[in-house]
From TrEMBL, chain B:
Source species of the chain: Actinophytocola xinjiangensis
Name listed for the protein in its UniProt record: Peptide zinc metalloprotease protein
Membrane-spanning segments: 117-135, 155-176, 218-238, 244-263, 319-339, 359-381
Keywords: Membrane, Transmembrane, Transmembrane helix
Lineage, top ranks: Bacteria, Bacillati, Actinomycetota, Actinomycetes, Pseudonocardiales
Length: 19, 388
């Protein structure tokens, strides 16, 4: 059998300076 | 050396079970992949220095059938997981981002900020804010609260630096929470639609168990709600303190902004963690293209290999994203553009007829007002250019 490899997305924390 | 005795030296990879999968990755590079449990067995064996032959035997025992370890090692090599002589820099995740990782405060210094006691305080602060707004709806802020001075421009000059300061504290808390787990992060600047955002890359969270991933992603909101609880307390005890309603407005509006998970906010990350998704943002894009018949051959192949859970959730998340973006753009056209027009009139008047102080106030206020707008445009252009 072959081993399936799946990339995982980056984890980003954001904040928007409100104006 | 015989083929059987061959070894592969892996970089310092992390191996973490997660649901039915195992997450393996290189924290230094911020590259992580999900593999079935047998993949975890192979990586652990190679990390322990076993030969390829020994590893294949262990894998076969785990899977109950022969496993193609060579092909897997080739994939690991392509991912950059095998020791080579190349320079290692983390993959870029924001349009503007510094290249290296931030080390930052020692783990033992920041750990008390994210222990059981601390999270109890954060939870109580959240409950307090909700209770205050339920019992005193008059304290819920509106755009008028942003007028901390009679003049709109002067209000901006006062409030915008404070809003940036609040964002700084928010991101700082993400960074500290990651440090409390011994992880490193990095800061960047990017955009969400037409919103300028400051961003902390927390990708190293994939190297810790799922339970531990919630804290650092919720840390920014946690400190925001503590600040909000303080501001609301001031409003309750000493009504009419200057500037406080403006600060309440700033925190509440950014908290509501965080709820728009289709903009890939903090709560989107929490949603991905809770549902066990792997690459939802990309799968959502592929599914949307598929819905409109715009999926090419490579996209079709990519979607066929996607995680079934990503596909299941992406099937409805794509419509939430589309609706969210449509509403966001409509909001921009209906509210934001007229606002820019109004302020442009104010700017032109202040710069052409204003003398002395008024001229300089207008220049400063306009700079603060248009800077995010110009920055987002520059970021969008840079993205376009880097895609070519």
């Amino acid at each position: 059998m072959t081993i399936e490899v799946r990339k995982v997305e980056s984890v980003k924390s954001t904040q928007h300076p409100d104006s | 050396m015989s083929v059987e005795a061959r070894r592969v030296t892996l970089r310092q990879l992390t191996v973490v079970p997660d649901g039915d999968d195992v997450l393996i990755g290189d924290p230094e590079r911020a590259t992580f992949v999900a593999v079935p449990p047998v993949g975890g067995v192979v990586v652990r064996a190679l990390l322990a220095g076993r030969t390829l032959a020994e590893t294949a035997e262990l894998a076969e025992r785990e899977a109950g059938q022969p496993v193609d370890v060579d092909a897997f090692v080739q994939t690991l090599t392509a991912m950059g997981f095998v020791v080579g002589d190349e320079e290692v820099a983390p993959e870029r995740t924001a349009t503007v981002q510094h290249r290296g990782w931030l080390t930052g405060p020692p783990t033992r210094v920041v750990r008390p900020l994210f222990g059981r006691v601390a999270w109890t305080v954060y939870g109580l602060a959240a409950a307090f804010c909700v209770t205050v707004f339920a019992l005193r709806p008059d304290l819920f802020p509106g755009p008028a609260d942003a007028m901390v001075l009679p003049d709109a421009g002067l209000s901006l000059v006062v409030l915008v630096p404070l809003a940036f300061l609040l964002v700084g504290v928010h991101e700082l808390w993400h960074w500290f929470a990651a440090r409390a787990l011994g992880l490193r992060s990095r800061f960047g600047v990017d955009r969400r639609l037409y919103f300028l955002v400051f961003e902390t890359d927390l990708s190293q969270l994939w190297s810790v168990p799922r339970r531990a991933r919630y804290g650092p992603q919720l840390a920014g909101l946690a400190i925001d709600l503590v600040l909000l609880a303080v501001f609301l307390s001031v409003e309750l005890v000493w009504p009419g303190v200057w500037l406080v309603p403006g600060l309440v407005f700033a925190v509440v509006s950014t908290t509501l902004w965080q709820c728009m998970i289709f903009l890939r906010t903090d709560l989107y990350g929490v949603f991905v963690t809770a549902t066990g998704c792997r690459d939802l943002w990309r799968v959502k894009t592929l599914l949307l293209r598929q819905a409109f018949g715009r999926l090419d051959a490579s996209g079709t192949a990519e979607l066929a290999a996607a995680d079934p859970r990503d596909v299941r959730i992406g099937t409805w998340f794509r419509w939430l994203w589309l609706a969210g973006v449509a509403v966001g753009l409509a909001y921009f056209a209906v509210f934001y553009l007229p606002l820019l027009h109004t302020t442009a009139t104010w700017t032109v008047a202040g710069l052409t007829t204003g003398t002395g102080t008024r001229f300089w106030w207008t220049l400063l206020g306009s700079t603060l007002l248009y800077l995010p707008f110009v920055s987002v445009t520059v970021l969008a252009v840079r993205e376009r250019l880097s895609r070519r």
